[in-house]
Amino acid sequence: xxxxxxxxxxxxxxxxxxxxxxxxxxxxxxxxxxxxxxxxxxxxxxxxxxxxxxxxxxxxxxxxxxxxxxxxxxxxxxxxxxxxxxxxxxxxxxxxxxxxxxxxxxxxxxxxxxxxxxxxxxxxxxxxxxxxxxxxxxxxxxxxxxxxxxxxxxxxxxxxxxxxxxxxxxxxxxxxxxxxxxxxxx
Length: 186
What we know:
Elements: H1 9-15, H2 19-76, H3 79-86, H4 89-119, H5 132-141, H6 143-152, E1 154-155, E2 160-161, H7 171-184
Antiparallel strand pairs: 1-2
Helix pairs in contact: 2-4, 4-7, 5-6, 6-7
C-alpha cells in the first residue's frame, strides 16, 4: 500500500519563507506610490475645474449687478438725465464704464483664485506681483506678448508657465488677470 503523504504546514511555509514579507512590501510600495498620485490628481481637478468656475459665476453675477446699479441712478436722477439715457450714446457710455470696472474685478478675481499660486510666491520662475525689477523686462515686451504667453503658456529660461496658468478661464479673463498683475507691478 502506498500512502500519499501531503506536506505538512511547516514544510509548505519553508518553501518560500519570504513570501509574506514580499506581499507586504509590494502592498506598501503600491499604496506609497498610489496615494500621492491620487492626491495630486484631486488637487489638479479642484484647481482646474472648481475654483475658476466659481470665480466666473461670481464675476458674471457681479457684472450683472454693476450694470443694473449703474443704469438705475442715471434713469432716476432728473428729466435731463432721463433724456440723456434715452439717447443711443448714453447706454454705451454707462456700459463701458461698468465694463471697465468688471474687467478689473475679473482680473483680480482670477489672480486671487489661480495666478497667486505661482505669482504670489515666485514659484517655477514666475515673477512676483509687485516686483518691479522682475516685471520690467516682461512689461517692455508689450501687453500683447504677455497675454499670448499667459494664454498659450511659456517655457522660459527661468521656469515655465502652463497655458492659462492651468485654469480653464476664458481668454478675456486671462488678459484681465495679466493687466491686473502688470498694473500692480509697475
